[in-house]
Amino acid sequence: MKNVMQYIVDHKGVKTSVIVPFNEWEKINADYKKLQNKLDVLLAIKDGLGEIKDAKKKYEEFQTLSDFLNESDS
Question: Staple partner for 6: which of 13, 19, 37, 48, CB 3.0–4.6 Å?
């Protein structure tokens, strides 16, 4: 059986809703979650680069990766 979307239209023939087969919806939703995760990572990188740029302008000292990884949680 082919997955076919069905459209609901109003009295003027304008599409107002869509019925998507469940399997197709699951795929769309999974793809959306992957893209959202990718966007979150890219935005975090952008924010981090902005922080580095601001710190350089203020001549602030940077924490090394080693120091960051060796920080205690307490």
Answer: 19
Tokens of 63: 């924490």
pLDDT above 90: residue 70: no
The continuous run of DSSP H or E covering 40 comes out as helix 22-57
Mean pLDDT for 7-15 is 96
Q: How many domains does one find in the chain?
A: 1
User: How high does pLDDT run on average in the chain?
Assistant: 89
The CA distance from 48 to 55, in Å, is 11
- State which residues form the domain around 34: 20-63
Reduced DSSP (H G I as helix, E B as strand, rest coil) percent helix, strand, coil of the chain, to 5: 55, 10, 30
Distance of CA 23 to the CA centre of its chain: 22
Residue that wins the pLDDT comparison between 35 and 5: 35
* Torsion of the alpha carbons at 10, 13, 16 and 18, rounded to the nearest 10: 110
